[in-house]
Design goal:
single chain; alpha+beta; 2 domains; four-stranded antiparallel sheet; three-stranded mixed sheet
């Protein structure tokens, strides 16, 4: 029987951590460069006159043209992570800068951005620089083994992501109606070879829905078993490459393909390090003098162990917070974010705001485009927390411009997963008096249907 103490003392080859550090740093660098050269820094963070904020993080704001400096800091820290230079400082700097970037505007929220933030936080406490790094080269010390939990912790985080994504797909829209894949796949008729032949077929929509659910639920376990690991990695590559072809979701597929490598043996990663080392030897000829040690002993375990335990307790419980709320999750979205519900709904809305001057008796409608970019308006139109925040912005704006006694009402209609649109917000409620909170929204009207599932 394996006890906790025996598990914590168990060791494994350090090479999976080293390869993970290098790949993570390079992927983050590519992602940041891609963001920069596509002009998204200016488009998403500098040009908009209003930015949607996360509840409790309203103080996190874009920095104007200094936002470029923030991205530069994040990019340089990712290079240092890959090189293993001043690793602890670099990973902390990356975590803080990347997380700040993602908190600047809620409009840009994506599951994989959140994944990168929590993964980089976890990496702060792992010894990813003890070998094949500038840090180890400068200290002339290299470690061949690490406590196995340092590798398993990354595996566990990836497993949590997949399992919650799979469980979330066990709902009536996804499995019994193939929604929203039926909407998205039908629109891909222009794809070569498969566009006109199978994309519009109903059986293919259900195959993708059920296949996606089983993939998420089973893939971490298939990766954990050495006998099925090669086949599982083939599925990972096939699934995410196919996702790249079908949907423009950025770096997420590549991040998940790379992350799956952590499940492979230390011998596999040793070969990767060997090949990289040979390549670098041809570029940089240097005399290597190292003191080799067998196992790296984690320092400050009285601090690190509780932090890691609390981290994973949070990762397991936080995605379940939707159970605390009444109503349809896909409709009111209470507990939807940060719960690994990936591409589960197609939601479209149309929301207009009416300002009433109670002193003069006059009223007028707001042109959303006067304050929001098209992308911001699209996101705002069907998400309750966006709507209430924008209503408060409108109220504050017109109060500053002379209307002291006013109300802000919303006329909103939303369609969910192919259903006919229905009224979303109670038009009689003055949203300017409603507060942002973790409580249920009494101003969101009930959903006229039922989606069974988690």
């Amino acid at each position: 029987m394996i006890t906790l103490n025996s598990y914590l003392s168990k060791t494994y080859g350090s090479s999976p951590l080293i390869v993970f550090r290098i790949g993570f740093g390079l992927l983050m660098l590519i992602s940041l460069i891609r963001f920069w050269i596509n002009g998204w820094i200016e488009e998403l963070y500098i040009n908009p006159q209003f930015h949607f904020s996360y509840y409790g993080f309203e103080w996190v704001k874009p920095l104007g043209n200094f936002t470029y400096i923030l991205f530069l800091i994040c990019g340089v820290s990712s290079i240092f992570i890959a090189l293993g230079y001043k690793y602890r400082f670099s990973i902390i700097l990356f975590f803080l800068s990347f997380t700040y970037i993602e908190l600047m505007d809620k409009t840009t929220y994506l599951n994989h951005y959140y994944f990168i933030s929590i993964l980089s936080f976890l990496m702060i406490f792992l010894p990813l620089n003890i070998r094949f790094s500038i840090d180890s080269y400068q200290k002339k010390v290299s470690y061949n083994k690490v406590p196995i939990w340092t590798i398993d912790s990354i595996k566990l985080l990836i497993t949590i992501v997949y399992l919650f994504a799979g469980i979330a797909k066990i709902n009536s829209d996804w499995l019994l109606k193939a929604m929203p894949l039926k909407i998205w796949l039908t629109s891909k008729y222009d794809l070569p070879l498969i566009g006109e032949t199978i994309m519009h077929k109903e059986w293919f929509h259900y195959l993708m829905s059920w296949g996606g659910m089983f993939y998420d639920l089973l893939i971490p376990f298939l990766l954990l078993i050495s006998f099925t690991r090669g086949f599982a990695f083939f599925l990972v590559v096939f699934f995410h490459v196919f996702t790249v072809i079908l949907f423009p979701i950025g770096m997420f597929p590549y991040i998940m393909i790379f992350s799956a490598l952590i499940f492979f043996s230390s011998k596999f990663h040793e070969k990767i390090i060997y090949n990289i080392s040979n390549f670098l030897d041809k570029l940089i000829k240097s005399k290597k003098i190292f003191k080799f040690y067998n196992t790296y002993n984690i320092k400050n375990t009285k601090i690190i162990y509780p932090v890691i335990v609390l981290f994973f307790i949070f990762q397991i419980t936080f995605p379940l917070r939707n159970l605390l709320y009444e109503g349809e999750l896909f409709w009111n979205e209470k507990g939807y974010r940060y719960s690994w519900r990936v591409m589960l709904m197609e939601k479209m809305g149309y929301t207009t705001f009416k300002v009433n001057d109670l002193d003069s008796g006059k009223s007028f409608y707001i042109n959303n485009r006067d304050f929001l970019t098209p992308f911001q308006e699209k996101q705002m139109s069907f998400q309750p927390d966006f709507i209430i925040e924008f209503a408060h912005f409108i109220g504050d704006y017109y109060k500053k411009n002379g209307i002291k006694n006013l109300t802000v009402n919303a006329d909103s209609f939303v369609a969910l997963n192919g259903r006919r649109s229905q009224r979303f917000i109670d038009p009689e409620i003055n949203l300017y008096l409603e507060k942002r909170s973790f409580k249920n929204y009494n101003w969101v009207l009930p959903f006229n249907d039922e989606i069974k599932g988690f």
